[in-house]
């Protein structure tokens, strides 16, 4: 897969004429990645992390990713803040619901969705207006997190997931999502893989760098309150992992309460709650067919011996 600036923009593998993109966006040079069929995906790179132009225009407050990240870095932390950090499609909704129930002390769904506390989508005023205790969440990389939150050592929960399953889930997510009137992605899974696992993507802020940065931070700061969880462990033994979270948050719990939270947070129950209880404005805005697309079982379509230029990054941990 090639990564080119707009000056080097060329026709696709199918010989189709490519659309043109601005040379700069938010004061940054625009880069164009191509999937396996030559479909272009313009983006900008901020502090080593790639951001799609379509996502910035449709979801980032003010439409300026540089200014928004600076705003996020300068927000003030509260004593009872908890921040959930995950690479996209790694269980953010799942752990957010678990933490919400544990902090309330009730195995009950909140009518709000986790995007109401997601740093990417909120202005400074909206973040400050959130009621305490705040359960903030983000896909932003470590170096983009609020400075005050890190300096005050507020609790962070970091969830990791096998990148093979992340790729499957992101593919399905992208196929079900629209930007404006257009579907975000319309290619096949094999065509999408070259985009997801490109060396450029990994080097400039993909799954590998995101995860390694958090691992290094935890190792270099052994006294920082950060809990690392694995999606696969939560799936295999939810009660054990939920108990870990309860202990980390220092909230009271019983075996019966943990069992109730685990049952409420089973995949099908969360999906049903999202459809019947929650005000899911994200689905209404982004779903290509109007149906719920945030909850999917990301069963892997990749084999351990997948032969791609970046096989190293698709292996099991």
Automatic annotation (TrEMBL):
Basic and acidic residues biased stretches: 1-17
Signal peptide span: none
Annotated transmembrane regions: none
Record region (Disordered): 1-22
A Gene Ontology molecular function term of the record: sulfotransferase activity
InterPro entries, A to Z: P-loop_NTPase (IPR027417), Sulfotransferase_dom (IPR000863)
Entry-linked SUPFAM superfamilies: P-loop containing nucleoside triphosphate hydrolases
Superkingdom in the source lineage: Eukaryota
UniProt entry keywords in alphabetical sequence: Transferase
Pfam families recorded: Sulfotransfer_1
Gene3D superfamilies per record: P-loop containing nucleotide triphosphate hydrolases
Domain Sulfotransferase: 79-296
Family the UniProt entry places it in: Belongs to the sulfotransferase 1 family.
Protein name (Swiss-Prot/TrEMBL): Sulfotransferase domain-containing protein
Lineage of the organism: Eukaryota, Metazoa, Spiralia, Lophotrochozoa, Mollusca
